[in-house]
Design brief:
globular
Length: 408
């Protein structure tokens, strides 16, 4: 294929692009994008830049850089902004629906099936999915540590965040760790913080400010609204919204945030939480759609379809609101050295928080013997060294768990 030097001839023409076209292309990606967040970015580049020519390679790189330095699922935010550039706000919504819907539907029906399946075989499958989580989280921790822990300062910030979340289990500990990391980063990491390119603006300032204000109002207001009904629909929305609003560094970092919000307070049992996370590795699309599984299996809010919809919408909403605000307003903040340093500190901390989650709850609740350890290491090797798709890790770990049941 010849190198792409520019977008298609109608790239700049307003009103000529259909949201249905965006939906069709993003739905194809939602059905076929296996491999996790990093792989999704490769699928997007091939589809939107080289094949469809909806934007240039520099435009894609600028949008990608923006999505990687704000909270939320980077691949979903990137697709959302590409849809926005292509077909306006309808295109943005169409891009998000197309990429998100397939995996959300699959995980919802998996949750409904899990509630009706019991016995030794079901327990073995559940245990195999928990071993998948061990392999996937270990790989994510290793990859993020290499990217975010670039010097002794960032390693120290990450280690402090890990220790804080491991030894202090009170609600809100992760938020305190992120706040401290931002302050330390602003003070200590300014000299290493690179300037960022500013993406082409496709959002008006009023819309950008409205999105940013809506993000903050929901972040601060949902905990107030849930007062008096700690296990109602608003409380469920708050759990997932807060997790989506605080995720830096990719979808895997949402694991400790969701675990801390849902498991200790009784919304979900430990086994169901880790099984849902493991099962999310076997479906295409964004990892955040695990919210559909967790919402459908929660212990308090029903019916399952309603709860899954609340959880799914709430976990994605903060990242999409921030994407709208950041496109228009980032230029005003990116020039500040302390802001860039704070982001470096936060990124270092989220790696530490993910490492803490790898130990507790992932390892200590999933690996119960030598055979489990071998399966987890095999899954990690398949992901990290043999470059196999996560779907194959699911097959190997579940099969291995079933073989252990047969042997016993």
């Amino acid at each position: 294929m010849e190198p792409v030097t520019g977008p298609d001839p109608q790239h700049k023409a307003a009103g000529r692009h259909s949201a249905l076209d965006v939906l069709r292309v993003s739905l194809q990606l939602g059905l076929t994008s296996f491999g996790g967040p990093i792989a999704h970015l490769g699928y997007f580049e091939r589809t939107y830049v080289r094949e469809r020519r909806w934007l240039t390679a520099p435009e894609y790189a600028e949008l990608l850089a923006l999505c990687q330095i704000i909270p939320g699922p980077a691949s979903s935010q990137l697709g959302f902004l590409i849809g926005l550039q292509r077909a306006g706000y309808r295109g943005a919504v169409a891009a998000w629906i197309g990429f998100t819907l397939p995996s959300a539907v699959l995980l919802y029906f998996a949750a409904r099936a899990a509630s009706h399946v019991h016995g030794a075989i079901a327990d073995a499958v559940l245990h195999g999915l928990k071993l998948v989580a061990v392999a996937v989280v270990a790989q994510a921790f290793w990859n993020l540590a290499r990217q975010m822990w670039t010097d002794r300062t960032t390693v120290a910030i990450g280690a402090c965040a890990a220790g804080l979340t491991l030894f202090i289990t009170a609600p809100g500990t992760s938020l305190i760790a992120l706040g401290c990391a931002a302050a330390l980063g602003a003070l200590l990491c300014r000299s290493t913080a690179p300037a960022r390119e500013v993406p082409r603006n496709v959002v008006s300032r009023p819309v950008a400010w409205a999105s940013g204000i809506a993000f903050l109002l929901l972040l601060l207001g949902l905990p107030v609204l849930e007062h008096g009904s700690p296990h109602g629909a608003v409380a469920l929305a708050d759990k997932f919204y807060r997790a989506g609003a605080l995720v830096f560094g990719g979808g895997h970092v949402v694991l400790p945030l969701l675990h801390g919000a849902l498991v200790p307070s009784g919304w979900l049992p430990e086994d169901s939480f880790l099984a849902g996370y493991g099962l999310a590795q076997a479906v295409p699309g964004p990892l955040f759609t695990v919210a559909a599984y967790l919402g459908a299996t929660n212990a308090f809010v029903g019916p399952p379809t309603w709860a899954a919809s609340i959880a799914l919408g709430s976990i994605f909403l903060p990242g999409l609101l921030l994407a709208l605000a950041a496109v228009a307003l980032w230029k005003e903040f990116a020039a500040h050295e302390r802001v860039r340093g704070a982001l470096i500190g936060v990124n270092a901390a989220v790696v530490g928080i993910l490492g803490a989650a790898l130990y507790n709850p992932v390892l200590i609740t999933s690996v119960h013997g030598v055979a489990d350890g071998v399966l987890a290491v095999l899954g990690l090797a398949m992901l990290a060294w043999w470059r196999r798709a996560p779907l194959w890790v699911v097959v190997v770990c579940v099969t291995g768990s079933l073989l252990q049941l047969w042997w016993r």
